Amino acid sequence: MEAAPKRDTERLRGRVALVTGAASGIGRATVERLSAEGASVVAADIQDAPGETIAANLREQGARAVFQHHDVADETSWRSCVERALTEFGGLDILVNNAGIGDIATIEETTADDWERTIAVDQTGVFLGMKTAAEALKQSGHGSIVNISSIFGASGGFGTSPAYHAAKGAVRILTKNAALHWAREGVRVNSVHPGFIDTPMLQAAKGTEYETAMIDLTPVGRLGRPEEVAACVAFLAGDDASFITGSELYVDGGYLAR
Ligand code: NAI
To answer: What is the DSSP letter of 65?
Structure first.
């Protein structure tokens, strides 16, 4: 029998990754996947207890992982976070801007404060992350930024959640803008657009007509799993994606193909 092709299971060995929103859902799955592929990981989140546990579990398995308390809407916090990667692991190669908050209100119900908060976390957080990590990523020589947008960054969704849509749409185009700016400096920038993924963010919809609607609207007929998004982030983060920059990858069970 022909030998199976050799698979490099540690595509990210020697790389250092910083993942925001790492204490839950897609961020958690991403930390675990990048770590499984050999990366050293700074797991950053505002939720300390679950974040610490995730990093401790990875260390117990022999991985290099630390937790950093980090609010993506705060520029000072970003400086500390990038600094942590440099002092702990000696550099930074991969930045995953994943932290996000949802909103389900209509435009009439959305207050200016609600709007500002969603934009601060989901949009300004991505800007601050790319700006703060830029120097370290350029020094990497194979820097990769993966920004988590959404299917709602490229469609009107259910006609609700205006701040979320505005922020995710901004992340999509900001990704392309930064990709062009750094195209000759060894830093690739891509966006990932999850469809409906079974994470705590969708908790409120569990068992309701909204969950049924999300499944019905998804051509493959189910919600996605966080691990299915993490696998795509890992691909874009590493050298298998060395000629991909400024692109948008939909991980949505066919939602936007309709
Ligand atoms: P989640 O709610 O399970 O996890 C989000 C994490 O972000 C939490 O650990 C939370 O503590 C953290 N976070 C919130 N505000 C923060 C801040 N200011 N600074 C640092 N961390 C903060 O949600 P999920 O589903 O894993 O979402 C991850 C990303 O994927 C978000 O950007 C979300 O918008 C996006 N997304 C999720 C979809 C889904 O169906 N679950 C669909 C499309 C996009």
So the answer is: E
The alpha carbon of 88 and the centre of ligand 1 are apart by a number of angstroms equal to: 25
pLDDT, residue 1, reads: 46
CA of 242 to the centre of ligand 1 (A): 27
- Ligand 1 atom closest to the CA of 151, numbered from 1: 43
- Measured over the CA atoms of residue 227, residue 248, residue 69 and residue 206, the dihedral's sign is negative
Percent of residues, the chain, with pLDDT higher than 90: 93
pTM for this entry: 0.97
Instruction: State which of 117, 119, 124, 201 you would mutate to test the pocket of ligand 1, scoring each by most atoms of that ligand within 8 A of its C-beta.
Output: 201
pLDDT at position 89 over 70:
yes
Spatial distance between the Cα atoms of 102 and 105, rounded to a whole number of angstroms: 10
Q: What is the mean pLDDT of the chain?
A: 96
pLDDT for 6: 47
Show Cβ contacts of residue 9 under 8 Å, excluding neighbours closer than 6 positions. 36, 37
Name residues contacting ligand 1 (CB within 6 A). 20-21, 23-27, 45-47, 70-73, 98-101, 121, 148, 150, 194, 196-197, 199-202
Query: Tokens 């493959």 — which residue?
Result: 220
